[in-house]
Amino acid sequence: MPVQNSPSEIDQAALEILQQSYGYSEFRGHQQQIIRQVASGGDALVLMPTGGGKSLCFQIPALLREGCAVVVSPLIALMQDQVDALRQNGIRAACLNSSLSGSEAFAVERALADGQLDLLYVAPERLMMPRMLDLLARSTLALFAIDEAHCVSQWGHDFRPEYIQLSILHERFPDIPRIALTATADRRTQVEIIQRLALEEAEVFNSGFDRPNIRYRIAENQGNAREQLLRFIRNEHEGEAGIVYCLSRKRVDDTAAWLSDKGLAALPYHAGLSQAQRQQNQARFLREDGIIIVATIAFGMGIDKPDVRFVAHLNLPKSIEAYYQETGRAGRDGLPADAWMLYGLQDVITLKQMQENSEANEAYKRVERHKLDAMLGLCELHDCRRQALLAYFDAPGNGPCGNCDNCLTPPETWDATVAAQKALSCVYRTGQRFGVNYLVDVLLGKDDDRISQFGHQQLSTYGIGKELGNSEWRTLYRQLIAQGLLQVDVEGHGSVRLTEQARPVLKGETTLTLRKMAKVSKTRQSRRATFSSNVSNAPLWEALRQKRKELADEQGVPAYVIFHDATLMDMLEREPQTLEQFSRVSGVGQRKLDAYGDAFLDVIRAHQGSAPAGPTDSAADSIALLCQGLTPLEIAHRRDLTISTVYRHLANAIAEGELELDDVVELNDAALKEIRFAFEHSEDGRLKPVYEFLDGEYDYGVLACVKAAL
């Protein structure tokens, strides 16, 4: 479809493609402006959170413009799944990479030359080959899309040397528009992307970095990390897909084997495995339900699986960029997901040793130190984690998020000044040449041969720390490192040294307030948040998933290529009875309506009326606490539920006449009028379009309650 000339014609043609090919009723955020910019021949740099719909920003212009769009993607292992998803929507797509046979590659090249492709995915190494560049020069090209553009940054966490060469696209094809896209780029990386890709004339679209559906939770490793992980998965994500990141290959193998022994479907992934084994494990993760991948950071870039319900870290990531990128693989479908992490002092020491022992130059090492310090600071924070995370990317939020551990369970703080003085003084009096374990032994007054050898039982700090236990002193030392009062001397085998910032604390010129140390709890039960236990009609939900799996297995594609979880959830909410009604389900385009409509309608009709009647015990508990005067956030905190679950309980109660809207939310007349107006002018009354119409000013839960009262 050749693009029209005027912006309004472009917008109309783009909307028709969105609705007919992808099954969505309207664009989100900056998507429409980005598509208009690229479709009309302009360059663009797109900063958009994972799951925000980046791919549509180049896929739709590819269909609007004459010729084929060339998409540069760093991982060939995932290209075929992306191509499969496009073909499900009736779009002519292919990939060119080393996994293809000679005859298969020739067929793709012929299709490109003959104008039979809308999109072609290639790796940057392939793109730079002279033969490939010559083939492109003889073809009609719609645009170049450079995905994962942060890979161009030498200061970033995913640097790919091949990406630096991509400026050749501007030099050899100056009239072809380019769009660079990333979900992870601080201000320095953004500048580097623009410079290295020659995008100085490009329009920058920054949609922010917030992922409100992800709950961030960070805790100390209490010495039983695998047990903590198992409780988290069993209590909250039984039978759901997830990723567990570890720092070393050995820990990956050990953790995957241990989880498997406990009855979970856990597979390892790291560079030490054969390529065939890695591909097999990745394919199972992408195509089967409920698979857990345990991996080093070698796994994950470009993962398109939308229904990853949790990402867990058993070690501290080396930077906030790495943490954001890795946790961003959860909840790409916009449904609730968890980013869960354990960390400890040994992580800090190990990462600092890795930094110092690398062959990088001193300037690079200095940047890496600052990044690790920022990551550790995020962990030790006792305020809203999301605010700190967004501030790091120069995208401050609008106040506490209500969906991180610090908001839901505000940590206690304590005046740690005296304890810190003891810890710092012990460092000084032992000569600033010992590690934390030794220092803790001195503070606790241990009868130890090494202490006797150095004569440290004679020091004033010997035995003065018996008010705290071993793990509590280790936590304090970690916090002092995070606060910049101590630094790890990695050349001294992990010994710690005082910094200039320690002086005012040691002299009593300033006080030090720290996060209170967590106590080990073996009795606390976590929330259980699997979809099957939370959806209003679990039998239908499972039946829809089973039908999706059957269709996916028949075609040899991942289940999410048929429909995302979010689409199944919309079917569950609407329970369509006709093909016309089914066509209104979010994510159902014309081709999928024709291919799958009847099959899913049969499932829905077979389960008609299977939803349980009346409020559940869980909902009754939420209603009871509200009547006692607790706010929805306080109820979520008290019951260890998500705030969205509590709002769902209360919205159902409003709809059933058990509660009044005023009982649940505090809205002035102007706000209430604004929300009602948005619902009245919404085509189908769904929450997401109303949320976006109101620019995210009101929480989904508040909107659900207002809708229930209409």
Strand content: 5-15%
- CATH C-level category of the largest domain: Alpha Beta
* Spans of at least 5 consecutive residues with low confidence: 519-531
How many domain units? Answer: 5
**Which architecture name of the largest domain does CATH use?**
3-Layer(aba) Sandwich
- Radius of gyration of CA atoms, rounded to a whole number: 27 Å
The percent of residues in helical segments reads: 40-55%
Strand order of the largest sheet: 3-4-2-5-6-1-7
By DSSP (H or I, 4+ residues per run), the number of helices equals: 36
Class from secondary-structure proportions: alpha/beta
What overall form do the CA principal axes indicate? globular
Kindly report the name of the CATH homologous superfamily of the largest domain.
P-loop containing nucleotide triphosphate hydrolases
Rounded average pLDDT:
86
**CATH fold-level name of the largest domain:** Rossmann fold
Cα distance, first to last residue? 42 Å
The total of beta strands comes to 17
Q: Main β-sheet, in a few words?
A: 7 strands, parallel
